Each structure stands twice: as structure tokens, then as C-alpha cells.
Amino acid sequence: xxxxxxxxxxxxxxxxxxVHFNNLGEKQSxxxxxxxxxxxxxFWSSVTGLIVVLVMWLAARRATSGVPSRFQSAVEMxxxxxxxxxxxxxxxxxxxxxxxxxxxxxxxxxxxxxxLDLVPVDLPHKILHLFxxxxxxxxxxxxxxxLPTADLNxxxxxxxxxxxxxxxxxxxxxxxxxxxxxxxxxxxxxHGFSAVLLAPANLLLNVIEYAAKSVxxxxxxxxxxxxxxxxxxxxxxxxxxxxxxxxxxxxxxxxHILAGSIWALFHxxxxxxxxxIFMMLTLVYIGxxxxxx
Length: 293
Fold this sequence. Notes:
Layout: H1 2-5, H2 9-17, H3 39-62, H4 70-89, H5 93-115, H6 123-130, H7 153-185, H8 193-240, H9 247-288
Helix pairs in contact: 2-8, 3-5, 4-5, 5-9, 7-8, 7-9, 8-9
């Protein structure tokens, strides 16, 4: 099939692994298409989300006032870290009662989703093949990706949620009239006729600012995780080039092991860092909703 279509086996391998299991049965052609449902993204993001909730529930249930277990100590350290960040960024204590648990959930959830990128590229497909699923094109699960954050829809959906929270707290803190007034009067303040002339420019700048925050928040997470996933696929091709016990195959095999190990260790930092950045920017953006220009 690769020869007939003019696509190399390597390119076909990567293209296959970049297509989601969705209601189209093929790769999504548009960046924004609300008619497409990527079932693999929905499944794995839901599973990881439930695991986060379960772990936090177990930690709360097993919490004791005596000598804490290692599990309780780890969770308490994580909660204290997030709470300290929230206190330094979000000025309102009332807001922190909701935002701190939200930031903790987002942090752990994103890390858990990102960790799925450390699963060997072909392992999910091999497991499905053991059950006779997704072996040939056209079958359900032939296309399947387990990394939700490498699907633009998931990070942008989370970024949209943060944008809605920015609007909610902006309206709540400044009241609807004050929020709308600020859209037309900041950052360039004027008086009388000059305020009227500056109003369109202020509105445009504020709309661009909100859009840029939301898009950059989602695209940053997506871009890093998509690039990391793609590198893992390229490394997998080194091992897939095995043709027998010869110098070239052995060299590529050794390169596959070394490159895969080094990139996996480096990628652990990316996995943690992207979760932390998303959490911090969530706190920063919600904190900024309490401030006036």
C-alpha cells in the first residue's frame, strides 16, 4: 500500500500513529471541527481524571492526625506547594477556596495524562491485537492514540475552561458593569471625548489579550507533548529497521535503546514541567481577574 501511494513505510508508520480513533475514521482535517469526537482522547482523559479523583479521595479518607504515612506525606506536600503558590498569586481567600483545589487537580491530572507518553509507542496497538482488535484498516481501534494532551482538542478545551473562569471572576469581583467598562477604558485611559475615541482600541486590545492567553495556554501544552510523542515515534523507527544480525541493524538497535532511554529521562522533566506551567498560568490568569488596569 505504501508503494502504491508513494508514501514510504516510515512515513506511513508515523501517519498511522498520529490519527485518533474518532467518528470520522480518518485524520481530522480542520483545527476546529466540533463534529469530530476523538473517542481515545475522551477515554484516556476520563480514566486519568478518575484516577486523580480516586487518589485524592483515598488520601483524604486515610488522613490521620498522628504520624502520617508516606502516601499521606506526599499528598500533603503537594497540597502545601499548590496552596503556597495560590496564596502568593490569588489575593482573595474566598476565590482560593475553589481555585486551590482546582489548580491541584489540574496539576496532577495533566501530569498523569502526560505520563502516558512514556508508554512504548506500539504497546497499545500490540495489546489490542492480542484481542483481535484494530488489526486491519477500517476496523474500530485501528487508529488509537493514548496521549490526550497531544490532541489539540484536549489542551484547548482545558484552556477554554480557564478563560471562562477568568470571565466569571472578573465579572464577580468587578460586577458586570465594571467588567464591561474596563474592556472599553483600559489600558488606555481617557477623559471625555478622548475616552470615546480610545474605546474601540481598548476593546480590541482586551479581546486580543484574552484570546492570546487562552490560545497560548493550550498550544504550549499541546506543542510540547506532540513534539515529544513524535520524537518517540522516530526513535521507534530505529528499532523497526532491524533486518538481521548485521552491522547496520545492530548499530540502529543500540541507537534505538540509547536514544529511547535518554529521551525518556529528559521527557520526564517535560511531563512535570508542563503540568506545573499550566497550573501556574491558571493561577496567574485567575489572579489577574481580581486586578484592575
